Amino acid sequence: MKSEMEIRCNMCGKKIEQKQDMPMEDFASVKKAWGYFSKKDGTVQEFDLCEACWDAFLRRFQIPVTETELKEML
Ligand SMILES: [Zn+2]
Question: 46 CA to middle of ligand 1, Å?
């Protein structure tokens, strides 16, 4: 049984280390609610990726992602 608070990378299955429910490493969390003009109308898909899998994912893109510098940490 997977615990409620456990976060795992969907691509490699690696566990994102947490301390008191605070992630100890950064990871990407993606959530997409598909709308009317998709074949998945009303379906919400979610996944988490560790940084290494995120980088591997982005390397498959034909057009690189847009990168900007965060002006201040929120
Ligand atoms: Zn991963």
Answer: 15
pLDDT tens by residue, 17-49: 988 888 889 999 999 999 999 999 999 999 999
Number of domains comprising the chain: 1
Instruction: Using the mean position of ligand 1's atoms as its centre, give its distance from the Cα of residue 49 in Å.
Output: 5
Domain that holds residue 27: 1-57
User: In terms of pLDDT, which residue wins out, 17 or 12?
Assistant: 12
Tokens of 39: 């074949």
- CA gap 57, 8 in Å, rounded: 16
- What is the CA(36)–ligand 1 centre distance, in A? 31
